[in-house]
């Protein structure tokens, strides 16, 4: 499984491509996950150690790397639907992952934040006009004595 992970630079290049691909499609989802990567040789503590410190795994003896994953939402045509908006093409799921060493986390997260911000630039702003009109109507009804 370790051979499947991309280098950090390749991960950012592919992540940028993934965001761009979804922006061009004008729909889609990108899932970003991260978790602590544990080593295979981690020993299971004795029951007395668990009783003494129930959060023993929060302070490991050596710092642990972080596994970062990104994937798109696989979309497929729904059979038998002729509604507008269901004319999507079949898209294969894209999976990306990289391992970040503890000493490189700060630099990685700075670059990761920039990549995520640039990927969110294509999001559409939510239309709030309808909600504002409803609130104005509700406020005008109770005190209908104008003028």
UniProtKB/TrEMBL annotation:
<keyword id="KW-0963">Cytoplasm</keyword>
<dbReference type="GO" id="GO:0005786">
    <property type="term" value="C:signal recognition particle, endoplasmic reticulum targeting"/>
</dbReference>
<dbReference type="Pfam" id="PF02290">
    <property type="entry name" value="SRP14"/>
</dbReference>
<feature type="region of interest" description="Disordered">
    <location>
        <begin position="119"/>
        <end position="147"/>
    </location>
</feature>
<feature type="compositionally biased region" description="Basic residues">
    <location>
        <begin position="123"/>
        <end position="140"/>
    </location>
</feature>
<dbReference type="GO" id="GO:0030942">
    <property type="term" value="F:endoplasmic reticulum signal peptide binding"/>
</dbReference>
<comment type="subunit">
    <text>Component of a fungal signal recognition particle (SRP) complex that consists of a 7SL RNA molecule (scR1) and at least six protein subunits: SRP72, SRP68, SRP54, SEC65, SRP21 and SRP14.</text>
</comment>
<dbReference type="InterPro" id="IPR003210">
    <property type="entry name" value="Signal_recog_particle_SRP14"/>
</dbReference>
<comment type="similarity">
    <text>Belongs to the SRP14 family.</text>
</comment>
<keyword id="KW-0687">Ribonucleoprotein</keyword>
<comment type="function">
    <text>Component of the signal recognition particle (SRP) complex, a ribonucleoprotein complex that mediates the cotranslational targeting of secretory and membrane proteins to the endoplasmic reticulum (ER).</text>
</comment>
<keyword id="KW-0694">RNA-binding</keyword>
<feature type="compositionally biased region" description="Basic and acidic residues">
    <location>
        <begin position="79"/>
        <end position="94"/>
    </location>
</feature>
<keyword id="KW-0733">Signal recognition particle</keyword>
<dbReference type="InterPro" id="IPR009018">
    <property type="entry name" value="Signal_recog_particle_SRP9/14"/>
</dbReference>
<feature type="region of interest" description="Disordered">
    <location>
        <begin position="68"/>
        <end position="94"/>
    </location>
</feature>
<dbReference type="GO" id="GO:0008312">
    <property type="term" value="F:7S RNA binding"/>
</dbReference>
<protein>
    <recommendedName>
        <fullName>Signal recognition particle subunit SRP14</fullName>
    </recommendedName>
</protein>
<dbReference type="GO" id="GO:0006614">
    <property type="term" value="P:SRP-dependent cotranslational protein targeting to membrane"/>
</dbReference>
């Amino acid at each position: 499984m370790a051979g499947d992970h991309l280098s950090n630079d390749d991960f950012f290049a592919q992540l940028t491509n993934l965001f761009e691909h979804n922006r061009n499609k004008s729909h889609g989802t990108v899932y970003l996950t991260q978790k602590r990567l544990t080593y295979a040789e981690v020993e299971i503590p004795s029951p007395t150690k668990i009783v003494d410190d129930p959060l023993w795994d929060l302070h490991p003896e050596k710092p642990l790397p972080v596994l970062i994953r990104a994937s798109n939402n696989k979309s497929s045509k729904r059979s038998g639907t002729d509604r507008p908006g269901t004319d999507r093409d079949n898209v294969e799921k894209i999976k990306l992952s990289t391992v970040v060493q503890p000493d490189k986390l700060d630099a990685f997260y700075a670059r990761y934040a920039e990549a995520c911000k640039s990927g969110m630039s294509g999001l559409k702003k939510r239309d709030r006009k309808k909600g504002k009109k409803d609130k104005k109507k509700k406020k005008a009804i109770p005190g209908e004595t104008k003028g």
